[in-house]
Amino acid sequence: MIDPLMIRPEIALADFLPIFISSALVLIFGGVYVGIYTAVKVKYLKPWAIIIAYGFWTLTAYCLYVMGSLMHVGDFTAKALVVAAIGLFLLPFAVYYMEDNVHKNNEHDTQGEEDGK
Amino acid sequence: MANNHLTSESKQLATWYLTFAAILFGAQLLFGLIAAIQYVMPGFLYGILDFSIARILHINALVVWMVFAMFGSVYWLLPDETGIETIGIKVGKLAYWVFVAAIVVVVLVFLLIQVGPASDTTIWFITEGREYIEAPRWADIGIVVVALTFVANLFLTGMKGKQTGIVTVLMADMIAFAGLYLAGMFFTDNISVDQYWWWWVIHLWVEATWEVFVGAIAAYGLITMIGAHRKVVEMWLWIEVAMLFGSGILGMGHHYFWIGTPEYWWEIGALFSALEPLPLVAMFVHVLYDWGKTQGAQNANGDETSVITNKPAFIWFVLNAFGNFLGAGVWGFFHTLPQINLYTHGTQFTSAHGHLAFFGAYATILVGMMYLAVQGKNGIKVMKNTKTSIWAVSMITGGVMGMTVALTIAGYVQVIVSRAQMGATWAAYFDGQSGVWFTQAMDWRLIMGVITFLGFLLLAKDLLTTGKNPVHER
What we know:
The structure holds two protein chains of two kinds.
Chain A: H1 4-7, H2 16-41, H3 50-71, H4 75-114
Helix pairs in contact in A: 2-3, 2-4, 3-4
Chain B: H1 9-40, H2 51-82, H3 89-112, H4 120-125, H5 137-160, H6 165-181, H7 191-226, H8 230-248, H9 264-275, H10 277-300, H11 311-333, H12 338-344, H13 348-377, H14 387-421, H15 426-434, H16 436-465
Helix pairs in contact in B: 1-2, 1-3, 1-13, 1-16, 2-3, 2-5, 2-13, 3-5, 5-6, 6-7, 7-8, 7-10, 7-13, 8-10, 10-11, 11-13, 13-14, 14-15, 14-16
């Protein structure tokens, strides 16, 4: 069943600019969140800065909410946006976990080679 | 160039491909400038080189120079990755000349003949008329033959030599790249069905196979330029392939919103388009992460020198990570959901996204590969920036960003005036384009286009001369 609002969303004239700005900020804040998270993990920043990273993710989620509300997205798209927000939250955890493990394995491999093992 | 340090025929062929790519890059910018002037002065070259023809040449030169540079990049990295000379390289060289001849003839036909009668003759010998892939059918067939030769070179070499993760990904990616082109070579009577298949070439090339190609090239670049650990880089490459194909293939739904396809594409397009920026964010982090890790490991050993062995190329590679995120990510996400795309579709928003995404996601990394080829060809151990290389990258990047901002403003005016206020009527289209914001935005787009073109001239000068510059370590 197609949401009638999908057929004619009727976006208010004054809402276009907030929609474009909030959708741009979704990725900008999201990028800052991922960047700070990574910087903390590789020890470029102090551990407490992770709070700032989560703050930026909260802003990302809020911008997604604003964008979706002003666009009058249907139920399905709203769920898709929630999935995207959760995906963005989990992304640096997953990427860092994998990268770090591969790095550790390689450091062990190199040590093994040096030891003649 | 005098000092040719290349011992591999594959790398020599790569320099041919990359050189012709650079020439076509210049042609793309030149015809883009002409089209930009025609927005400001509609009478410019009217009847000689109309906007429709300048636009065809601008866009097709873009696609073709990138394909040339991609083929060149693969021929460049194959001997390094597989440890052997590319198999069938003589046929590869013959295919190169066939490709160049076909492109020259097609450009001359576009310039001198331009249009033909509404018959099969036009489709076969003048233009097929499909946006982005307007080459006539004889050239299409030639391109398929060349692409298959290239794929054969890659597969034969990949199967016989060392099978690294990068080569394996490229083998899978390039077979898809060549195969998808076939979807743009036949016609159906139904325009919706026709467009449905056409997007298989345009979207699935650009947002799936080209992005994966960029991932593979970035992996090669990180190993070559900063000595990143192959296992780490290749592990990341596989994740990236999964993410890009996972979101990019069905992300095609955002092109199926308004072409007469079933409504379920709105929901599929919305979901997967929302996910499409995720791998781009991750790609951006990955480049910085690997750079930081490699530099940190070297510093920990008491060596404070930079790990980067080719600074101009590395700048272009880092720009790729930023540009992909901004152009494909941010400017794409602006208008990817159907509710807002209803208003932005076909406005200058699309053009803004196209300019920054093609530049950020592809042009940057391919120019980086050109610098890697210059380094290899001239036997340079550590390649440094020159004033010209810095000016070139600054002017081109600044120019493209300026054009993108100008086109975004123009697009916003169209959304508000032509679509939201006036309901997308015929009159609305012209009203939207006659407003002061739109016309001034087009003036700024032209100015920024000139800056980009001047930057390109500096880039060409740098690529041609930097190899002999004594500033580099040999």
